[in-house]
Design brief:
The chain contains eight helices and no strands. The chain is mostly helical. α1 runs antiparallel to α2, α2 runs parallel beside α8 and α4 runs parallel beside α6.
Length: 229
């Protein structure tokens, strides 16, 4: 049976992000005079998840399951079928794969935190090439398929898939990709908001908090992975 100690590894900044996204959702509900339960649950669980990832806390996967399930549903309703498929068919099963992978690589037997890693210089070069080539190939496929924004859709999909894989493998370099994905997603959901798609305002709020956390996660994991060298 798994045992964990010192489950709370969050800092003041982490709590500010979590309380901030909760407050933002409450303010939005008050201004709109209606509560978007699904959108709020997706946004709040998602921010808690990525905040815990930034701390290398294995409990992130519990909130990740909630987030990707709801996000897939919201994306499908908004007509963002690529995002819906990405979350339902890739992110969802990766939550369980990540959990079992991180359990084996914890700092200590009952620790809740995982040991961070970083790539070699040559691995980073190959990672960069893979991101560029795969994004270009998928963008071309989407273009001939009639996608109105093939480069944007390709970038978010390809970079998310690779970043999630790096996250499960505990590599620090995941955060450079998450920052890029977050920026593109903010633009994507802002466009959806302008077009009047439901839940889109809360998704913009969620991705803004994701971006802030990704920058924090990048800084944190650089330090964690350096200490393990």
């Amino acid at each position: 049976m798994l045992k964990f100690r010192h489950i709370n590894t969050l800092t003041i900044f982490d709590w500010i992000l979590i309380i901030g996204v909760i407050a933002a959702n409450l303010i939005y509900s008050i201004l709109e005079e209606s509560a978007d339960i699904v959108g709020s649950a997706a946004g709040i669980s998602g921010v808690i998840c990525v905040v815990m990832v930034a701390r290398g806390n294995i409990m992130n996967y519990l909130f990740g399951v909630i987030n990707v399930s709801l996000y897939a549903y919201i994306s499908f309703k908004a007509g963002l079928y690529g995002d819906a498929a990405l979350n339902a068919l890739y992110y969802f099963p990766m939550q369980f794969i990540g959990w079992f992978s991180w359990v084996k690589k914890r700092e200590e037997a009952e620790s809740v935190t995982v040991v961070a890693r970083r790539m070699s210089r040559s691995q980073r070069v190959w990672l960069s090439l893979a991101c560029v080539i795969l994004t270009a190939v998928v963008a071309w496929i989407l273009h001939i398929s009639g996608d109105p924004q093939p480069v944007k859709d390709s970038a978010t999909t390809v970079l998310s898939v690779i970043a999630m894989f790096l996250m499960v493998r505990r590599f620090m370099e995941q955060w450079t990709l998450w920052v890029a994905v977050n920026i593109i997603s903010i633009v994507m959901w802002s466009i959806a908001l302008i077009n009047g798609q439901s839940h889109s305002a809360l998704m913009v709020i969620m991705w803004v908090f994701y971006l802030a956390n990704s920058v924090n996660g990048w800084i944190t994991w650089v330090k964690l992975s350096k200490s393990r060298e």
